[in-house]
Amino acid sequence: MSDIPSSVIWFAFGLTLFAGLSTGIGAAVAFFAKKTNTKLLSVSLGFSAGVMIYVSMIEIFQKAKDSLVGELGPERGYYFAVIAFFGGILLTALIDKLVPSGSNPHELRELSDISDVQHSVRSKQALYRMGLFSALAIAIHNFPEGLATFFSAIEDPALGLSVAIAVAIHNIPEGIAVSIPVYYSTESRSKAFFLSFLSGLAEPVGALIGYFFLLPYFNGLTFGITFGMVAGIMVFISLDELLPTAEKYGEHHLSIYGLIAGMAVMAVSLLLFV
CA 202 to CA 222: how far, in whole Å? Predict the structure, then answer.
């Protein structure tokens, strides 16, 4: 993989940065909307889940399996692909377990909710601490997402773009989760924006780790294992975070319609590059 053009490397970093810093969009939504449009977010999160699930199961896992079969043979290669897939799920589940349960970064907060908390909890320090914990939790979650976006773009720029857009959509409510409590506790828009962007920087950091520690050793075997794990990571994020949040803040059918639309758009986009 040492012959990867530098333009592709920079493009992959750029996509990862875009996906990570989209938490700032969530901060803007929090500041300029009196009430979060939960129906729109529900459809958007369902759409993001549809893109991520479809591309993981149809495209990324298949590429992982083909690469491993080429290195290890049909039977062993398939076994390794499946193990890598569930290894990615296990890795993300362990990261999820390490995050304090009271600081769920995907727990969408509305302006009115935090305003009520501000009146019921006298100490603004408690609100500020809520924002800081949310920022830390989001940073932990975003690290494997950065790896997924980066390596998808390395393999196929069009695929990487689709993954980056899906990740960016699901990062919007994360920005809301950080910015609202920080803003209400400090009354500083700049500080709220800064922490939202800072939490998103974990994704390009994940890409940097992948570039320096994984990319130099890339061959058919390491590529297949990494891509298998990326598929597992994205499926876990979709099932554990995106869909439950989409259903909680919208009608059940809205999230499903978004899910199907995301799958359909991803399918069409992949067909265009056949």
Answer: 23
